[in-house]
Design goal:
The chain has one domain (17-115). The strands form 2 sheets. A 3-stranded antiparallel β-sheet has the order 3-4-5. It has 4 helices and 5 strands. It has helices spanning 40-51, 74-78, 102-113, 116-139; strands spanning 22-24, 31-34, 81-84, 89-92, 98-101. The protein is globular, with a radius of gyration of 19 Å. With 141 residues, it is an alpha+beta fold.
Length: 141
């Protein structure tokens, strides 16, 4: 597609790969670092360097698409998986200070709940109960 052609919303977008490596400030206004997604320990070092002068935006860390599909959603939120490297090692924890492999994360959920699916089902049931309770309260007001 040339610059003169019209682009439609469903057309694929070509993104410069270097743009995917950017780490932004907490307010999102400034590029404060880079990480190529190869080794999670390099990201930890880069975040330590960044955090000496400014807060990083953990919600938009690069290469979050490396998070395995089965660990996204409820599990990713529950144990705070921020991003993973290409080898399956992930930055985890509320403060983003932990490093765990995807297999270690899976094992924790298997030991505690029996399977990843059992945990997801537990969350689904709790959510349904919560919604029913809220709906019940709103009807009585």
């Amino acid at each position: 597609m040339t610059d003169n052609e019209r682009r439609f919303s469903l057309d694929p977008i070509k993104v410069d790969p270097s743009l995917r490596n950017r780490i932004f400030s907490a307010d999102g206004d400034e590029k404060v670092g880079e990480w190529n997604g190869e080794d999670i320990n390099d990201l930890v070092k880069e975040l330590d360097r960044i955090e000496e002068r400014i807060d990083a935006n953990y919600n938009s860390l690069p290469h979050a698409d490396n998070i395995p599909e089965d660990l996204r959603g409820a599990i990713g939120k529950d144990c705070s998986i921020w991003t993973c490297d290409v080898k399956g090692n992930c930055l985890t924890g509320e403060q983003g200070t932990g490093v765990e492999s995807a297999d270690q994360i899976r094992e924790k959920y298997i030991l505690k709940y029996g399977s990843l699916e059992a945990f997801k089902e537990k969350i689904r049931i709790e959510r349904e109960k919560f919604i029913a309770e809220i709906n019940s309260r709103s009807k009585h007001q």
